[in-house]
Amino acid sequence: MNDEDKRFATIAAEYALAGHALIRAKPGETQAPYFAIRWGWMKPIHDLDDARQLLNHIQGTK
Q1: Mean pLDDT score of the chain
Q2: Which of the chain's termini has less CB crowding within 10 Å, N or C?
């Protein structure tokens, strides 16, 4: 497992604790490599820094 995989796993676990899901798209299948999901809502995310920023917003932290 490389550093990016570990970082993704950590952030995905934090999304789960916040009641959301963070998933990876299959390579080459879509423009965004990640998606945040909850109750049918789906937001494309372009990198793990953006995923972290959205999670902070979801959690209400600054």
Answers
A1: 90
A2: C
